[in-house]
Please model this.
Amino acid sequence: MSLTTTDSTLSATPSPKRAAGSGRTAAPTEVAPAAHSGVATFAHLIPKLEEYLTPSELKKVKEAYRFADEMHLGQMRKSGEPYISHPLAVAEICAEWKLDAQAMMAAFLHDVMEDQGVKKEELIERFGASVASLVDGLSKLDKIEFQSQVEAQAENFRKMLLAMARDVRVILVKLADRLHNMRTLGSMPPEKKRRISRETMEVYVPIAHRLGLNNIYRELQELSFAHLHPLRHRTLSKAVKAARGNRREVVTKIMESVTSTLIAAGIPAQVDGREKTLYGIYRKMRNKHLSFSQVLDVYGFRVVVDSFANCYVALGTLHSLFKPMPGKFKDYIAIPKLNGYQSLHTTLIGPYGTPVEFQIRTSEMHRVAESGVAAHWLYKDDEGSLTDLQQRTHAWLQSLLDIQKQTGDSAEFLEHVKVDLFPDSVYVFTPKSKIIALPRGATALDFAYSIHTDIGDQTTSAIINHEPAPLRAELHNGDIVEIITSPTSRPSPNWLGYVRTGKARSAIRHRLRTANQVESQAVGRRLLGNALHTLGIEPELPSHIVERLLNESSAKTMDDLYAEIGIGTRMAPLVARHIMTMMDTGVSVPQLDPEGHMLPNKPDPVVITGSEGASAQLSSCCMPIPGDRLTGYLKADQTLIVHTQECDTAKRLHEKEPDRWIELVWGQDLNRRFDCRITILIHNERGTLARIAAEIGESDANIVSVAMDDEGGNASMKYLRFTIQVEDRVHLARTMRGIRRIDSVARILRERG
Model:
C-alpha cells in the first residue's frame, strides 16, 4: 500500500493493482489556475494533436492557426500579450478533450469574424461549411442594433445555444474560450470583471454542469466567485490553508481504516480524500447558515472500484466499518443524474463522531463524472450507438430547438433555458415505470409537457401515486404520475403561474399566442376598452398615442398588445392608466355623489389576486398578504410592484417618484397562500425549534425557510427567522398566537422590511 499526501488531497492505493483508468491524464482544469498562461507557439500543441489526428487533419488545423495568426497580427489583449495567445490557449483546452479537426480549427478561428470582420463566405471557401458554421455560432451579433444591452446579450445567447443544439462542439469550444478568459480576467476593470463573472455563473456554469463537464464547472465557479467576491474568497482561502494541518490527523486515520478494510474484503480500489471547493464552502455556509468550522467538519472521500458489483460490496463494507447516518444515502447508479453522473453517496459517522461523506463509483463512472460529453460523438450520424448519457443530452439539445419555435423573443427564450439549467432534479415514474427527470419544484403539468407537447396541451387532470391530484401538485422523488387528457382541453393562462420547466412554459405561451390568438385579442380589446371607459377615455386612440404606446412596450401592433392583455401577461387597468398619463388627461366622465355634487376625479383601484404572473409582483421587502393595505409602484416597463402602505421602501420611493404610484386592493376568493416573514426571540432551550415548527404545522401554515441568529451576543437567547406561507392576516394572527403560547418564546413579530 502506498500513501501520498498533498496540500489539497490525500490518496491511498490499497492494492498494487490500481483501479482501471486511475492513471488517466488529468483534465486541464486540474492544473492550478496560475499555471495557465496559454501556449507560446503552435509547436507546443503538435504532440497532443498527433496523438489522435491524421497528418492531413493536422495540416488543416495548422492552416487555420496561420490564418488566425495573420488576422490577429498587431492585436493585443488587455494583459499586453499578443492576441493569438488566446486562440492558442483555447485550442490547448480543446486538444485535452481530443476534439476533432473541425472543432480545433474553430477554436483558432473563433474570434476572426467578430474582431477582424472576416465574412462567413470567406471561411466557407478556405475551411469548409462545417468550420464556418461553428465559428458563426461562436460569434456575437455586434452589427445588429438592439434596444438595450440586455436584449443584445439575450440574442447572443440565443444564437449560441441554438448553434449548440445543432452541434455540441459549439458549446465545447465556447466553454474553453470562457475558461481561458476567466483565467486571465485580472487585467479587466472591476465592473467588467463582475459583469463577466456574473454572466459566467448564471449561464456557462449551469451549461457545463448540465453537460457533465464537472472539471470545467468547478473551475468556472471558483474563478467567478474569486472575481465577484474577492475579499470573501481570500478570507476563505486563508482559513482553509490554516485548517489543513489540524485536519490531517483525522483524514489519515479515516484513510487508513477504509484502506485496510477494503483490502481485507478483497476489493481493488483507489481511495482519495476530497476537499471542498472554496465556492462550495461559501455556498453551504450561506444557504444553511453554518459556521466555517461546521462546514469543514464534514470529511469527503472518493472510492473508485473495478466493477459495478463492487460498488455495492464496497458500500456494505464501509457501512460495517462506520455507522451510516439515516436518510443520507443516495443511489445515483440505479437512477443517474440528468447529466449522466453515477455514484453511490453515503454519509457515515467516522472517528471522533465526525460526519464522513463517501462517493463510490467505477473508473468508467469517474471518467464520465469528470469529462461528461466532452467527446466527439454528437455530430456523428450513427445515433444507434449513443450511450444513455448521450441520448439524454441529445434530447435536451433538441428541446432547445422546440423552445425556439414556440418563443416570441430572445429574452423569453433565455428565461426558459435558464429554468432548465438548474442542476437540482426530481425523478418520477410513468405508469409503465419509465423514469422522467424534472427540475426541482416541477408539477404534474410539467410532467405532462415533458412527455409530449400535445399531451400537455390536452391535460385535464393528474393521478399521483394512484390518487387524484391537482395539476399544480409539486412532484417528489419516486412519485408515479399518470396524466388524464381530453381532445377538447386547451391550455389556460393560469397554468403559467405554476409550471417550472422552460419547455412547458414556452409551449403554453405559444399555444395561447397562436391557437387562441383571435380570442385573446378580442378579450384584451374588451378589457382595455372597459378600463379606458372607466377613466373617461375613448377606446379609439390617436395615432401618436398608439405609436408611443407600442414603442414603450414589446408589442409590435395593437393586436399584439390586446393579445398580451387577453392571456394575462399585461394588466388592462395598468395599460389604461399609462395611456391616461400619455394623453395628459383625467377622467372626463363626471362622477356624482347621491346628492348630485361632482366628486373628485379618481380612478378605481386596481384589483390584485396574487396570480397576475410577471405583470404584477409582490414586493420581497414587505411581503404583502391579504388584509394588508396596498399601494403599487409602476416601473418603466409597466411591471407593477405591490407594496404594503406601511413599507418604508415604498415610502422612500414615493417621495422620489410620486407620479408612479397607484391605488390597489385585494380581490375576492384568493385561492393561494402568500409568503411572509416572522421573527421570534426565544430562550435557547432544547426542543424549542421543534415545538415552534409543530405549532406552525398545526395552524395549517407552511414553512418556507428558517434561520437562527444570536441576540446581541447573549448565548441564552436566540432569534429565529421564519418565512412561512399563510392565507391572509387572520391566518397569520392565529399562527402567531399559537407560537406565543410556547413557554420559551419571549417575543414574536412580523417583519415588514
